[in-house]
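HUMAN: Mind sharing a backbone?

ASSISTANT:
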Amino acid sequence: MAFLSKVHKSFLALTRISSHFQFLVSRADDLVSMMTSKLTRKSFDFNRSICHQYDYIVNRITSSSKNTDELVDLEKYIDNLRSGPLIHLKVEVNLLLLFVAIKLQRFLYITCISEINLYTDVCQIIE
C-alpha cells in the first residue's frame, strides 16, 4: 500500500511538472511569436525603404539629360553614389539577410517546440 501511495504521489508530481512545462513552452512560444511579428513588420518597412531607395537611384541614373549641365550633375551623382549611398544600401541589405536568418531560426525553433509538444502528448497518453 505504501508503494502505491508513493507511485501515486510521483504520478501527481510528474503531472504538475508536465503542466508547468507545457505552460512554459506555451509562454515561450507566445513571446517568440510576438517578437517575430514585430520584427516582420519592421522588416517589411525596412525592405520597402530599401526598394524605394534603389528605385530612386535607378530612375535618376537612367533619366535622359537634356543638356551638358544635367549630364555633369548626373556624373557627380553617380560618383557620389559609389562613395556613400550604395555602401549604406549594401549594409542595409546585409541587415535584411540577417533578419532572414533570424526567421529561419524561428522556423527551426517552432519545429523543435512541435516535437516537444508531440512528446508531451505521447507521455500524457501513456500516463
